[in-house]
Amino acid sequence: MKHLITLILLFFFTNIFAQITITQTDLPTVNDTIYYKMGIINNFDSNVTGANVVWDFSQVSFNNQRADTIISVTSTPIVYNVIFNFTIANLAFINQTPPSLGVGITVSDYYDFYKKTSSYYRKAGFGATINGVQTPVKYDYPELYFKLPLTYGTTDSSVSSYGLSIPNYGYYGQTINRKHIADGWGTLITPFGTYNAIRVKETVNITDTIFSESMNFGYTINRPVSYEYYWLANGMKGHVVKITKNGPSNIIEVRYDPLLFVNNLSNTDIYVFPNPAANQLFINQLPEGVKHIALTNILGQVCFNSQSIEKNIMLNISTLPNGIYFIEIKTSKGCFKKTIVVDNKQ
């Protein structure tokens, strides 16, 4: 991510990029499959937030991907159905990266169980094969992720705990203190689209409680505080972007649609700069076979349209109103898309 900009848009963009409200219809539902690209983001500034902010993640690089499939509770092993009945949970995730529960504890076939209503979205617990035994683990109080409806300024918290005896090990438990606040709204830019979004900051404190039978000794571990940042948008059935900040590491995941972007060119193939831009916009290293170059505003109006045979071109944008624009370059090898910000008052 090269740029993370706080930008006050012109008044005629207000109705398009305005504060939104997140409800249960904007969160995952049974039978949804959600695709994410993942990577490391090194220059994330968590303090850039507030009202009418532009978060630009269009230059993020990815090194992995995954697909989350949401299933019904009754589709999980029957031992979990009894504990996580319809009063406790109404959807489940197959967790592809189960958390570590400590040295000497093996974890596999991990399911997260959630309850979604018009008032909240929270985790009821999990089920996993722990040291070879299918084990349902219901939290004494659910872990609250989002209070609903969620608007700018919404805040809440929860304290959850669980404990279980583990064969040939002893005892393992956790206390999870999670606080969330919707601390920003504005425009979210990713390599795959631009969204009217709200940001939620989650502060997570976890304490592990452990008793080892072999050592006949018990102890607690206070984990370092971690932070999770979610960007939510209407109709997306889950977060569009999530950044997990744990110590110096910032892990980012960005939602994408594989059917729309399977033939797209990498954002590193063509260079569009500067961003934000004033008066002039440069497009360099255009490949052979360019069929179409278009610059449009957020209303879909075409501001520039050309078929270029030059490798490097310059666009005069000095007369364009300030705001968000989209570059689309179609070539014989695929399609390149990028979001730019025009700020001619620089």
Number of domains: 2
CATH class of the largest domain: Mainly Beta
Estimate the strand proportion. Answer: over 45%
- What string gives the helices and strands in order? EEEHEEEEEEEEEEEHEEEEEEE
Class per helix and strand makeup: mainly beta
Number of helices: 2
Mean pLDDT, to the nearest integer, reads: 87
Helix content: under 10%
Provide the CATH architecture of the largest domain. Answer: Beta Barrel
Poorly predicted runs of 5 or more residues: 1-16
| Spatial extent as radius of gyration | 23 Å
Instruction: Report the major sheet.
Output: 14 strands, mixed
N- to C-terminal distance: 21 Å
Q: How many beta strands in the DSSP annotation? A: 21
Q: What is the CATH fold-level name of the largest domain? A: YmcC-like fold
Shape: elongated
Notes on the structure:
The strands form three sheets. Strands 1, 2, 3, 4, 5, 6, 7, 8, 9, 10, 11, 12, 13 and 14 form a 14-stranded mixed beta sheet that branches. The protein has a four-stranded antiparallel beta sheet with strand order 18-17-20-21, with no helix packed on it. A three-stranded antiparallel beta sheet has the order 15-16-19, with no helix packed on it. Strand 12 (226-233) and strand 13 form a beta hairpin. The protein has helices spanning 78-83, 258-261; strands at residues 33-40, 53-56, 64-71, 91-95, 107-116, 120-130, 133-147, 155-166, 170-190, 193-212, 217-222, 226-233, 239-246, 249-256, 271-273, 280-284, 290-297, 302-306, 313-316, 323-331, 334-342. It has two domains: 11-261, YmcC-like fold, CATH 2.40.360; 271-342, Immunoglobulin-like (Sandwich), CATH 2.60.40. It has 346 residues and is mainly β. The longest helix is centred in the first third of the chain and has 6 residues, at 78-83. It is elongated. The protein contains two helices and 21 strands.
